[in-house]
Amino acid sequence: MRRPLVLFDLDSTLVDRRGTLADWANEFTARHGLEDEEQAHVLGLVAERAYPPTFDAIHTRYRLPTSTAEMWRAYCTDIAAMVSCPAAVLDGLDELRVASWRVRVATNGAVDIQRAKLRATGISERVDGVFVSEEAGARKPQTRHFALAAARCGTALGDGGWMVGDNPVNDIGGGRSAGLSTIWIGNDRSWPPDDPGPDHTVPHARAAIDLLLLHSAGHTRATT
Question: Are 152 and 161 in contact (CB under 8 A)?
């Protein structure tokens, strides 16, 4: 029997990116003696897209003595120390693999920071592989991103599979265009009214894992 494929987004799906970034921005502004009102500006910059050039903008705005390269390295270290993945989600990733799922992380972002988070949380040890957009210049929602992620798991989009994520455009719209079934992590939000909906909506990653396990159990019963 062919092993089914599931691709998980990382940020705000398997880990709490928003809360982690807010904690980091608070510590960063305090460490560099910046005014309290600058915390929101720093947070906005890294929340939009955290890459080394983001720290060029921070370095220029605040005229900090620390180099951009040093700030980026410190950012990767600090975020890795702060981020966490719920134990129930880590257990669930193990359960999916025991149930013969091919489990992969498919994430946009810079390689340095994304892999640092995956190692620190223990996620990298519980999946069959990781695909980070910077590695191949293919970002979600591009179909090529999903195709490369599937290929690195030893399968193809034509074989079907699932995409689990929190972003309506990158994860759900992109996954649907790539021919995947989709599970949206709602995080207490409502689905955008004008967008085609996902196949399923759940509140968090553990609920998505439970749904996938039920799906595979039902498929197994139907084929025996």
Answer: no
Choose among 75, 89, 90: nearest CA to 45. 75
User: Distance (Å, rounded) from C-alpha 30 to C-alpha 151?
Assistant: 44
**In the chain, what percentage of residues exceed pLDDT 70?**
96
Paired with 105 in beta bridges are 8, 130
User: pLDDT value at position 215?
Assistant: 86
Spatial separation of the C-alpha atoms in residues 92 and 61, rounded to whole Å: 43
Is the pLDDT assigned to residue 54 strictly greater than 80? Answer: yes
Residue 98 token pair: 């025991």
Which residue would you say has higher pLDDT here, 218 or 21?
21
CB burial class (10 A; 0-12, 13-18, 19+) of residue 29? Answer: buried
Least confident of 9-18, 152-161, 164-173: 152-161
CA distance 177 to 194: 17
Q: Is the pLDDT of residue 104 over 50?
A: yes
